[in-house]
Amino acid sequence: MTEIIDGNAVASTLREELTGCVETLAAADERPTLATVLMSEDPASETYVSMKQDDCEEVGIGARDVTLDADAPAEDLFEVVDDLNNDDDVNAILVQSPVPDHVDYREVLERIDPMKDVDAFHPENVGRLVAGYPRYKPCTPHGIQRLLAAADVDTEGKDAVVVGRSRIVGKPMVNLFIQDAPGGNATTTVCHSRTDDLAAKTREADIVVAAAGVPELVDGSMLEEGAVVIDVGINRVEAEDGDGTTLVGDVDFESAKEKASAITPVPGGVGPMTRAMLLYNTVKATSLQTDTAVELP
Ligand SMILES: Nc1nc(=O)c2c([nH]1)NC[C@@H]1CN(c3ccc(C(=O)N[C@@H](CCC(=O)O)C(=O)O)cc3)C=[N+]21
Fold first, then answer.
1. CATH code assigned at 163
2. Cis bond leading into 98, ω under 30°?
3. What pTM did the predictor assign?
4. Do residue 110 and residue 164 come from a single domain?
5. Domain of 52?
6. Which residue of the set 55, 113, 119, 250 is catalytic?
7. Tens digits of residue pLDDT in 233-269
8. Is the CB of 275 under 6 A from ligand 1?
9. 139 lines ligand 1 (CB under 6 A)
10. Buried b / exposed e across 131-149, counting CB within 10 Å, b at 16+?
11. What is the ipTM metric for this complex?
12. Distance (Å) from CA 249 to ligand 1 centroid
């Protein structure tokens, strides 16, 4: 039987555990606060940011939300970031991507205080991860490690194939998989849009992480029997019945499920874990900044 890995359930357990950490910090008068910054009128971005705020409320983390007009000057966003950096009541900052074309996202990321950078996208945090001493682990790949652990998938010595080389998922996933640490020690191959024969690579994999942003790129014919399949795709496509849009992953779920020993669904797989690990990093950030010990789950 194929195990459908329930990301909502794993994330819910983690949120419950994090509530205890938040209480410890609040008792020391250091309740964590996450600031989200949204500079976009994209409905999907608005949805994600509002989900993050709901998550904060559930675990007792304070939520600050800053919204900027999509046509505001880049300087306005930089000022918001500077103010949040200097605000002792704010422990964590997330600037939702994408930002409008006239804003250089890289400049934004480099401006965020690395101690408050809970996405772990600042070059200092990226560098630490690559060097093997991460401060914060990027939310999506960290969430994937947790999902694999929850499904009793030991990565050590396994062949992992990561499809996609993005800064936010592919690259950090590779770095976590190759670390000499729990959830790592995998023999890791990274594939991307220029890979000659993707199917030949994925067929060698014990674990496939599909993070290319291409709807249903990976199907059952590309998998070895018993592979573990993690679907990172969040693609909004036109519904087959022509009525509105539906969410599809980077994996063709129906055919992949026939081959996989375990697989994550979309929605309800990686997405909720990404959000849970953001809360985790916010708690960790608060603990580090205030020298208040918590037992992270
Ligand atoms: N600075 C920054 N950090 C991010 O982490 C970041 C970002 N910008 N920009 C956009 C992407 C996307 N992202 C998602 C997180 C959770 C779900 C999620 O929970 N999805 C639900 C479904 C939601 C729905 O129905 O649309 C699920 O998969 O079950 C989706 C997408 C975080 N991102």
1. 3.40.50.720
2. yes
3. 0.97
4. no
5. 25-117
6. 119
7. 999 998 888 888 899 999 999 999 999 999 999 999 9
8. yes
9. yes
10. eeebbbbbbbbbbbbbbbe
11. 0.97
12. 12
